[in-house]
């Protein structure tokens, strides 16, 4: 709109007079252990009121609209990056949960079944061994008794 009213050349000249945007600063923010970039800055160093008397209304409105759009773009970029990083971490956590559920738990259950089987087998072997020892002790006792009877 400002270009149509005042012309491209005038718009460019006025834009050159205005101070540059401040540098963006990116500071990390921690959300649930995920580092998210936070964008700050990007505003003009001087205020637009310095130029209001010198420039036409259409150009000042265009400048204000640009600042608003610039702020919105920064907010959207910050939120998009946040969502992408959180989505990546959620997917990573899902993969870990699936690995635990579908790989580690079945392996542990199989190991538990094997250990239970071995313990039961060892218990049966021990029981059979005790019976054999008891039977042999009974036979020895019986032989001792017979030997005493014969000796008398």
Automatic annotation (TrEMBL):
- Keyword vocabulary terms for this entry: Coiled coil, Hydrolase, Ion transport, Transport
Molecular function GO labels: hydrolase activity; proton-transporting ATPase activity, rotational mechanism
The record ties this protein, via Gene3D superfamilies, to: 1.10.287.3240
- A Pfam family it matches: ATP-synt_D
* Coiled coil (residue ranges): 76-103
Q: What is its EC number?
A: 3.6.3.14
- Does the keyword Ion transport feature in the UniProt annotation? yes
Q: Does the keyword Ion transport apply?
A: yes
Matching entries from InterPro entries are given as: V_ATPase_D (IPR002699)
Return the similarity comment: Belongs to the V-ATPase D subunit family.
Full protein name = V-type ATP synthase subunit D (ATPVD, ntpD)
Originating species: uncultured marine thaumarchaeote KM3_65_D04
